[in-house]
Write a structure and sequence with these properties.
4 copies of one chain form a homotetramer.
Chain A lengths: L1 E6 L3 H4 L1 H4 L6 H10 L7 E6 L9 H5 L3 E5 L9 H13 L2 E5 L6 H7 L8 E3 L3 E5 L14 E3 L3 E3 L10 E8 L4 E10 L2 E6 L12 H14 L30
Parallel strand pairs in A: 1-2, 1-3, 3-4, 4-11
Antiparallel strand pairs in A: 5-8, 6-7, 6-9, 9-10, 10-11
């Protein structure tokens, strides 16, 4: 399987708050995350916005099974022709993972057809991710809920199409919620939005999020995802835990 | 339009923590909620578990456009034949509102086909309800988010079928989330699950929840719902509010 | 309610096979169809591709509740800025009906996010439309199935997003099938694809299709649709009718 | 992987029109179909209605990864307790394939929550199956469309819940249509309805249908399905084939 990681690679170069977590770029940590296990036969390639054709000549896309896309502040400078190229490859069968702020990118809006605008944002919140499709392969091997100590809130309504599959919901320490892992089919391709990934926190260094990324990458390539699903619901008694008040270590 | 409100009417009789909020039964307050405006032509009938045939002879159901169902502790004593009768009327076109703990009832399980088990519960949490289908008629005229000062947490995964329409998500003060307003078509009938409604809090006395019940009742009868939808998403700036920390009055 | 009918208005001017059915343009017959009953308070405006700004200055769109869009051969000449303008108004809440070949238009592709390509086409087939969401308002008052004596086949797979609601399936005399009435929410707006409408047949002069258009227009504006739903399924006996072999009059 | 094939095994014993095709029972041919390739590690067990506990003691179900269910005339005699047992195992994660007339069985109605009634039926029609989710694993390696020379028509509306995934549509020679392969999640289990399988025709001896059954069995067990997906849509020219008029050999 050939995976291409695309990064706008800007904030890591100019903001200390970002480079402290990702001194070699978010893409480098994403590449590590994909390769740390189950990696037999997985080839990872990096493409950066600054590269010619943003690193995505047709030949690279033709040879890509799954594309991860991280972007934020420089999205307006992405060439429309490359956006079309990506969208066409998704239609042909390439998987696409839309990471965090890339939900607002031209690529996401082109593929999903909506504005992808959310309702407010705020840095620094703790996040809890709860599976609502507990047998979905993307959840395999993950604790429940997944706790992210510090990330970024995006609020609902988020203007995305109704997901084909809604996999995770997130609650934020401030009380907001988000459909945080969602999937759509576009032509022969699978698209996954994965909300966690704020650049001022080391979210992609967290083992659970790395596992989530590996699961989603494999699922987007229609490969089996090892590991057990989230246990089924049980209502046998009162649940005393207060996730926020007691901290997210539960 | 003819509405029938069904109530097991047990806890109001034996627990002070319930009767203090609903001295004449939850059904009485639900009836008030439905009739307080837009009520021209709305006929409300009460059916209690203690009544012959649980208050639901075939003639009553045949004459019911929308049935509201509140149940909790005595569900095992509901007659299977009445459950079948309700399910058949839904198939024929009767609307059904499944209220709070009734998600675990025989009626809900029969109509939805799943166990309807959730993952834990806890009394006393504040709740925030966020619209994810902001143009859905059920949201008309409601503030965003809807804040419930004190209710009961039900956790995900909740074992319900994938909703045809997911309308609201709830976050609880403890950090959990729930798909809290969801709809399904069953035959010619419309089914709505509405999560708020814990019996030890005066949830059904709250104007926003009463409006939500009226909206859902009208929608389940395929009647237009007056009022404006939730405003569309906007991302114009950072969102400083901390709903929990600052309280739910926002 | 203000409805705007958009037409590329080209084939009616140059092909006898089209002008014979629509001598004053498809838009004129669509306007008649919308106004022939239930028309109290319905204002219909025409916008043509040849008009300045394609007849769709921002002021017209701002004043449009539902936009019907018919296009085919000249779609490449539609201005991208107007396409964006339409898409944004849908997001804000305007309804959009995508008619027949307009499924391949820039507007449809922009709003839906996919190529909207189908698998083959053929003129002249008889069509039968079968409701699969029998309680949906778009089906109200319509016979079942709806028979179109002569239209145009579009084959599956048709590359559209999974519909939020699938309302009708069509079978063609040649044996193909199509998801022929489907809906999506986009922001606060409702989008409906309606497959029948081939320009070389008088499809929009047929009473059932005119009723279907009126129903969909009202539904896209979130207005109630009068009339009874499709009767519920019944399996009481063998069904001897052969729709094709016996002709579509059944 | 352990697969259990359940059969009511009645018509094969009493009707010549059935026994001529399935002299050793439909279950025997289904078992052959599952094992003819990709069968490494696949264990198939048979359970018949006539067996004690219908062949489904808890221990057998606990050891079953995917259950195929074929039933028709004797469904009323299936023990309600066994139906509950099956439904609970699906919730826990067992896959379930509902075959042909079993869509009307107690098991299907219990798991899906609807009447599962269709609109008419007729023996002897040719069928064409068209993929509408062309990248779905269940379609892998199959021709498009799949032609079944002689089967049984079931008409829409069919009273099933809105599928989580709609994979195939069928058209019948008589002009009707059916959502013929559809999936739902129920708890941790995957449910698939597969319409072809009329007992008076050798449908389960047809290679394409056998492949379809193997694909669905693997998918229901969350195993990868080998083979290429249906080619993407293409609209490059007119499509002259008339599937029915020219016969289904295309």
């Amino acid at each position: 399987m050939n995976v291409t990681i695309w990064n706008e690679y800007y904030e890591e170069l100019v903001y200390l708050s970002v480079s402290v977590h990702y001194p070699d770029g978010i893409h480098t940590v994403l590449a590590e995350a994909l390769q740390e296990d189950d990696s037999a036969g997985l080839e990872v390639r990096i493409a950066l916005q600054q590269d010619p054709e943003h690193g995505l000549p047709q030949s690279v896309l033709d040879d890509t099974d799954v594309l991860l896309w991280w972007s934020h502040l420089k999205d307006d400078e992405v060439d429309d022709e490359i956006v079309e190229r990506v969208a066409r490859r998704v239609e042909e069968g390439m998987g696409l993972l839309i990471l965090h702020s890339a939900i607002g990118s031209k690529v996401a809006r082109r593929v999903l057809g909506t504005t992808c605008r959310g309702t407010g944002w705020r840095h620094g919140d703790a996040e809890l991710m709860w599976a609502v499709a507990p047998s979905h392969p993307i959840t395999h091997g993950l604790p429940h809920p997944i706790a992210v100590p510090e990330g970024e809130m995006y609020g609902e309504p988020l203007d995305i199409p109704v997901p084909d599959e809604l996999v995770y919901l997130t609650s934020y320490a401030g009380g907001e919620v988000l459909r945080s892992v969602a999937t759509w089919r576009r032509g022969a391709g699978r698209v996954v939005f994965i909300a966690p990934g704020h650049e001022e926190s080391p979210v992609y260094r967290q083992p659970e999020i790395r596992r989530l990324l590996r699961n989603a990458t494999r699922w987007a390539a229609d490969l089996p995802v090892p590991g057990a699903p989230v246990p089924p619901p049980r209502r046998e008694g009162e649940w005393p835990m207060h996730w926020w008040k007691g901290g997210v270590t539960a």
